[in-house]
């Protein structure tokens, strides 16, 4: 698990965390890079939209390994997003 400030410069720490987990559990480079891309995009959206008006936000990224699967859980306290509001 890694907890980062909700700042763009902290995304490097998230990428490094995913890289370490992937290598430790011997996932392929393709899988590691795919996870890094998806998790970075999700965290970017949280920073840009969820914490738009909040200065001291935090994001927790947690990795759960079960057998041959990797699950990433991203936790934040930013503003929620309701997709039903999009027209």
Predict the CATH topology.
Answer: Heat Shock Protein 90
Q: Tally of extended strands? A: 3
Which bin fits the share of residues in helices? 40-55%
CATH architecture: 2-Layer Sandwich
Count of discrete domains = 1
Main sheet record: 3 strands, antiparallel
State the strand order across the main sheet.
Answer: 1-2-3
Instruction: Return the average pLDDT rounded to an integer.
Output: 94
Radius of gyration: 14 Å
The SSE string, one letter per element, is: EHHEE
Uncertain regions spanning at least 5 consecutive residues = none
User: What structural class do the secondary elements suggest?
Assistant: alpha+beta
Distance N to C terminus:
36 Å
What's the CATH first level? Answer: Alpha Beta
The helix tally amounts to 2
Architecture overview:
The chain is α+β, with helices and mostly antiparallel strands and 87 residues long. The chain is built from two helices and three strands. Strands 1-2-3 form a three-stranded antiparallel beta sheet, covered by helices on one side. Helix 1 runs antiparallel to helix 2 (29-50). The model has no long low-confidence stretch (mean pLDDT 94).
């Amino acid at each position: 698990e890694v907890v980062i400030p909700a700042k763009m410069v902290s995304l490097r720490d998230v990428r490094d965390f995913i890289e370490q987990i992937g290598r430790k559990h011997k996932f392929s480079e393709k899988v590691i890079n795919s996870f890094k891309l998806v998790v970075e995009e999700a965290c970017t959206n949280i920073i840009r939209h969820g914490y738009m008006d909040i200065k001291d936000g935090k994001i927790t990224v947690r990795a759960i390994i079960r057998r041959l699967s990797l699950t990433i859980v991203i936790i934040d306290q930013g503003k929620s997003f309701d997709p039903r509001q999009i027209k």
